## 1
Amino acid sequence: MSSIPEASPPLWLLAELTYRCPLQCPYCSNPVEMAAAGEELDTEDWLRVLRQARGLGAAQLGFSGGEPLVRQDLEVLVAEASTLGFYSNLITSGVGLTGDRVRSLREAGLDHIQVSFQSSEPEVSALLSGSPKAFAHKLEMAQAVKAAGYPMVLNFVLHRHNIDQTEQILQLAHELGADYVELANTQYHGWALLNREQLMPTREQLQRAEQVTNAWREAHPDGMRIYFVVPDYFEDRPKPCMNGWAQMFLAVTPDGVALPCHSARNLPLEFPNVQQQDLESIWRHSDAFNAYRGFDWMREPCRSCPEKERDFGGCRCQAFALTGDAAQADPVCTKSNQRSLVDAALGAASAQESGAPGLRYRTLQASKDILARQV
Amino acid sequence: MDKGSIPRIHRHFRLQWEEAQGCHVLLYPEGMVKLNDSAALILGCVDGVRSVADIIAELTSRFPDVDGIASDIEEFMAAASTRRWLEFD
């Protein structure tokens, strides 16, 4: 008998409205195969998804992408989210944002705008985003967000090309008046995995960044909140990814695929589509959402591990990406007999020449080229 | 704590009842705090008009049998202020 536990309500709905994006960040978590995605959901589809997710109990809503601002119906979706009682978060590069749109989204009921930065320096920002003008615009938009009364949350994705600027990044965030700063070390999924060797910092870089962050916190006890997301390759135990498979997080892709994690799209499972099935049956009853729920799916070393209720065996997407089998322990764990895959990746990255990025940028054309080679 | 000061829910938090959680919650950027009944009761009195003393007086009259309610409320408000759930005028 299967003993898959009764599904708890999802707390989060991540609405990935589009894969379109004016930037080309090589650490993007979107799937490399994004060019093969179907057509984007229309406004009615998204309104239905919002209502169904709220009915299931989701309270936090992220509008993400790609760049969600390219959707012309964003204000309509925000207004519905507000009516439904969601706490709504717009996760944006800031490109395409204007002072007027910051205010109109506020009037529609948006609760929070998170602006992502590539760097504290315009040159590095241009190198990573592919846009020489983006940095100045982001600064302007961060200020507009603050002025409109939103909490200011700035997100910096860290990797070897900007992690040594952690102090300058914190200084910039402080000067902008940020309420929260996320120093999010790159997680290696999607485009980031493709660029792993070029993005992975060294252990020494990481340690310095942590020291700088801790020193900043001590010096500014009443200052902005800083979230430092560690790069799990450097840890001995895996992260409790998503608090367990299909426990609290539900993502819907631009073309309607429902996922228990935004990186799960290329796992060899039949993920349901919101155009064919309602979210309640997807969340509670679909094979894909039940595949790794609870603990019954686990093998050793997870099955008998006393830590399994803390980390849930780590990340299924990472297990699949690195070992080819999503039911393996996350190879970050030193109890995994495949930890050598992670150590080899760290070794390959530290052997890379610094200063010569050779990054592969996230573009539709690059995605098409990759797909053509897969056929 | 100055009992004459007037607390407000911090502008970056939102207090609401969540049916699926079976409790009141505070929502903030990308996060949620579940509240126990006493916390929800105290925060429910916070309206940006009443002072700490007003709220203590009201809850004391509603729950006359609860020992030490005044100091409990004050302690909670101090903790909630540290966590930035509350701001004071």
Note: Chain B has one domain: 7-83.
## 2
Amino acid sequence: MSGTVLENLSNRKLGVLTVSLLLAQMVFFLIGGLIAPAPNNVQVLLATKCVDEGSSALTQQRKWFYPRGEGNCNRVSTLDDPYIIDNHITADHIVFSLQFPNPMEGTREPDMVRWFQYMVGVMMLDIAYQKHNPMIEKPLLGLDLRLGYRDIGDKPGDWKELAHASETRTMDCSLDEQFKEDGYNYNCSMLPLYEYGAVHHNFYLINIRLPITGVTDNKNYGIGTLKDIWVIVIHQNGGFTKVWYSTKTVVTPILIGIIIWFWRRVKQLPRPPVLLEKMLLGLGVVLVINNIPIEWLTLWMELPFMLLLSDIKQGVFFSLLLCFWIIFAGEHLMDDVERNRLVAYWKHLAAVMFGCLCMFIFDMCERGVQLRNPFYSIWATDLGTNLAYSFIIIAGICACLYFILLCWMVFKVFRNITFKRGSLPSMPSKRRAYYEGIIYRFKFLMLITLLCAALTVIFFIVSQVAEGHWKWGEDLSEERSKLEYTSAFYVGAYGMWNVYVFALLCLYAPSHKYGAPALIVDGDGEGEEIATNEEIEFSRLPSEVSQLTAFVKKTAAD
Amino acid sequence: MTCSGQQVNVLVWTAVITLCMFSIQAYSWTLNNFLMSGPKAYLTFSASVAAGAQAGMEECQHQYQWEKWNCPRSSLPLYSHSTPAANSETSFVHAISSAGVMHTLTRNCSAGEFEKCGCDDRKKGQVAAGWTWGGCSDNVQFGEQISKQFVDALETGLDATALMNLHNSEAGRAAVRQTLKRVCKCHGVSGSCSTQTCWLQITEFRQVGNYLKRKYHRAQRVDYKNGELKLGNTGRMEELPSLNKRDLVYLEPSPDYCRTNITEAGSVGTVGRLCSRRKVDSAHRSERKSCKVLCKSCGLKVRKRTIELLTSCNCKFQWCCDVKCEECRETVEKLTCSVI
């Protein structure tokens, strides 16, 4: 019977391994906190109001309106500019135009670079309260949206279309009774504008129209007096991308190495691999797939599906991790039920799979559709919102169900351990110490799992709180804290799950010492080793992956 | 009868332009002189600075329309030659104009109107590398910096008044910061909040005005001692807290604004001023008690006149440009302070 490395490792070696893994974990946090900048950058952009001089505004769709550079648009500073009245300009002729990035201090025009990876745009409308033009309840916004791009070296007006869509958004605005005076704006919630999974070009341009002719469902009526449109573009910081991908590139070969080592050990065994070993291999492989930095390709190619792909990869990894925990607990349950097959866990796995399937469908409905139309948002329509919520709620129920099942299983394992421990004093002292050690290490690993989960949650909260602690009222000269908490969280959490899987692969690999007298070093001599083997033969359970199970079976048989 | 809103708008605009022309003629010398004296690099900002100061002034007049002192144009620091008094009204004017400049600069920076805007050189390496590596600082910071450079450049002296003005300008900029809205967007895995990005959004300037008005009511009197401002002994508190950056401070008590005293106090008195007894939720407290404050406390009578006005009503609006209204006759009660 084989033992795992965990049980056969001396305390000193286990200590060394633990400390080095903790150090690796520290390094991840420090890389995130000290080297990387904040994960995302925000560009707050105010739309320029361009005037479409064309006779029929809606036939002029081919034309681009841009605020800066040669051939820029004819603009008005406010929508009550006398120019609008003098020239009989209607709402159909107004094009809200955003060209980004905005000019910044520096020698050349700043541009978007491929390191930015993705763009998320949201829209905020400044709608002024006017007594004679109030807003109706939940008005509909009919938007004609275009996203264009231009590269360095292109002529100033040479914008090319990336996406074009007519979208509907429902506005959600409020205003307290005491502020219902001219000069106040409605408090409107932000509206999703677009999400695009690639930043392949240098300059981008958004043209927004709110047409009033040719629209159905009373769109763009009763929205009040529109003053301004703000668009906030969020993209990943180049420095963060560099640090992130470098970390991935370094981690990948190490993880591949440990998987090969693990599987060779399993293969050296005289028996076929057990379920837990297969699960461990699966976990490792999925993590490697997660780690392989195919994102480097985005520096050469425009790959908008990367956002969706990384969602799916992460989803697969975490669902496999959830399955692994269930099986890990189940295989250490120490009752007389034969498991070692996935079918034995169908209830738990079904909960995980169904939940993940819901999340996958939801993601395909949002980010999948966005591949075709970046302006699409599932939250824009009532039907979509309900659908999205139902998927999320079902996934949430599955998650709850899963955690109840998991907790129940872990509880049973600990109950069995306590129960079996009662029979320990009747054993010879050396053997008792040995088995107590096994229980201790088993619990130790359970603890590590809980610790990892708890740390992830804690650091997430810390990063959120730290982010919230901007001192707005303070002088700008006061530096923000040197540590980037959010980046530290991302790189740290990423590192943590890598370290976790690494540790599992190390410690749960079959030990070299199988079948050799080495095991007896801690035992009571050859006779007992044989006795152990006999008992295992007796119970006819090939599934034990650890000595712990063997021990419990034995005591149960006693 | 319908009239197109265009005519209404034209009238309003003509009025605004005429008003601007007048004020520019009267005050342009100091303003231009100041703007030209700024560093060459900042010439691009001068239009925004002027617009910001103007916005501050308009807000000031709105905030004080029901008070004895109604923020006359002459109280704007950029427009006046003479050294104004160092009372709490002056402190408000300094704060609101500095806030207006910051607000406008921030806004225009977001609109991409400046060649140089908002990339912080404190970040790593070259500016371009900084942008690529870790993005740029927010536009609010930029607005604050430029506003500070412009408005603080006005105070050349090192006397008590100069220190007070600097402090109040700082308080004005702090007010813009305090009224910023923090907005967050979740964009993590499947749009979850595992990744959340937040930014600061400037609010309408009215909110800044309201904030500063509250600060005005709690303005603190200070004394000038050993080259710095110290909280004056108001008698109420023995344990004096340190001077807060966000508070407005003043050196002298306000004069009696009931009387006309243009030369010294810049006061025009309250005779002929309008007051209001409007009873709606949105009417500010100062509006509700305006007749009491403006007229009765100055020993004046409230005179009631009913006038008939033509107003636009039953308007059919689009979100921009085109308004179709009916014209309605409305009887309005006008209340003025009068000697008899």
Note: Chain B touches chain A through 73 residues (CB under 8 Å).
## 3
Amino acid sequence: MSSPELKKNRPSLSLRIPQPKSRPGDTPDFSNLIIPDAGAAPRPDIAAHPREMMNLAWSLIRVLDSKGRAVGPWDPRLNPETLRRALNHMLLVRAFDDRMYRAQRQGKTSFYMKCTGEEAIAVAQAYALDRNDMCFPSYRQQGLLIARGYPLVDMMNQIYSNAQDPVKGRQLPIMYSTKEYGFFSISGNLGTQFPQAVGWAMASAYKGDDRIAAGWIGDGTTAEGDFHYACNFASVYRAPVILNVVNNQWAISSFQGIAGGEESTFAARGIGYGLPSLRVDGNDFLAVYAATAWAAERARANLGATLIELYSYRAEGHSTSDDPARYRPADEPRCWPLGDPIERMKQHLMALGEWDEARHEAAQKEAVEQVRAANAEATANGTLGEGKIPSVKTMFEDVYKDVPWHLRRQRQQMGV
Amino acid sequence: MATMTMIQALNSALDVMLARDENVLTFGEDAGYFGGVFRVTDGLQKKYGPTRCFDSPISEGGIMATAVGMGAYGLRPVVEIQFADYIYPGYDQIVSEAAKIRYRSAGEFTAPITVRTPYGGGIFGGQTHSQSPESLFTHIAGLKTVIPSTPYDAKGLLISAIEDDDPVIFFEPKRIYNGPFSGHHDQPVQPWSKFAEADVPEGHYTVPLGKAAIAREGNDVTVLAYGTMVHVSKAAAEESGIDAEVIDLRTLVPLDIETIVASVEKTGRCVIVHEAPRTSGFGAELAALVQEHCFFHLEAPIGRVTGWDTPYPHAFEWHYFPGPARVIEGLRKAMER
């Protein structure tokens, strides 16, 4: 033990509170980001040991280069028809978000969450997964539903909490649920779905099924125990699951350093659990598709789970309830060095000679039109703003399979 | 018919359900190869293989979460939380997920999960192996809460819980795993084999959820109890000479209100006995319900005999535990007016 005299010359302890590089009024500063070249990351065999691919947790898998060309071993070589379809889906997601954001501002519903800047993630992952694989999403993966062809009008009915709402007005807007489309009911308690996806995958393996599961959380939620339960159980039981961390830099107003993103990457968390851990450019449709397809193939081959960090940027507010200009520079989204996923896909298709400005403009219009038509149908079913909600009688149903006496009595007491 | 302890009866229920339904599987800390720290899953891994009965990491949150995922897939998991005192890391998954998933998905996804967990004191477990947290679960919409007090009921109720399509929290009174307990800790334990309730059919049978049992018929005062306290209450009635009717609730949610009301209307008096702390304990709900349903039949204030509002203290186990002396005092008080 050292004596008090020896300690005198040391500085006092100080508590570090992480701070982002720029705040409102500052010039956005991404100078600390290390962005490897597209095509630089190696693509290991799916059967390779996780130890042989540890560098991928600190690297960044990128396929699209600055000129919009697909390069390197991760190029999934999708045909132009698929690429155009994917671009249309991303445009549809963006048009949907814009329309629903306005609907909230118009008082038609209470709440909305956009995924602007992150469209490539859910859409590419829906393309890479099989239609029957089970998704345990967080709240910014509306692209999964749209890419799987879930009716826009049903999403809107849910957002409006109207009489046609598939979940009967019980859930906050955007907390969709549809078993038919392999989309687990979204929870507002962040992270709970991550280890649930592992449990579903364990069940699939237990039954000798061929379906796999995928879960999504954000960078902020990796701080929850659920993230670690998921990694641990996925590793221990070699569950056929893809664990996706969407690092969009911001958890409401807290930058990713508050979740521990400055000390190491979120992908690197998986290494301690012996999971293959990939860090991927989330604004690069082709890279997201390729990494997800790799992980899916690995899971289906009974080789277990993969952790994927999808490196992206939340270009708008967390939800309709916050103003991002209060906690980050207003022009920060425009300065994000990895660009916009839709623009990059457009550039790629144009580089291939498979797309042009006129077609792009027409596709945008078509997406807006499709959303407008769905919205007309949904608003005709009613909106929360007008008070056209499901029958209040249904409030006491589905708490249990059968309505117990005490709930029957409470319903009678309410007079319905 | 065989003579079984409560542990053997619970093991038999799991055995029956694993044999009948391939969608049933069971897991928990030390629940696989070793058969559980209380031996409830003993032999099941050997009989059904490691994918039907297996060990889990020390992760109640992970256990509950994976069970929810399995339930969403269509399995019927039975998980063991080693001590009820350890359940809190899994509480979010129970309360926000298992309990709510049917409602929030409008019936598309369900959580047909049974959570088995030993609870209660009387074994010198100190504050982390003795708790009775049932009221933290009875308060939650979407959960059923079950507590047996005999080997026969334990097996029949556990089978009902596993077959139930809603999540069931199944509290096992560990003090009476091997024999009923009068509360006289200084007297030798009587094994279950000496009691008729230990006669348990070897095959499949059920005891329905939501139905109480009359553990002792009587005319003077109604005692509402469950788990270990059923036996303590019966002993108190015998020793005091007060002709108490002891109702074993067996299921707290949904509660068998009819049996309670019929008894209190007959006796005109009611004492509630539980081991959990008093404030906001399930006894508060029972007292409110009895008052709402039976006010004009009551001859005396409703009494509560409970654990104290302190942590469960190791050295003061028998000061904390509401033993026969405290129950008798409660009965006498109810009979004063």
Note: The radius of gyration of chain B is 19 Å.
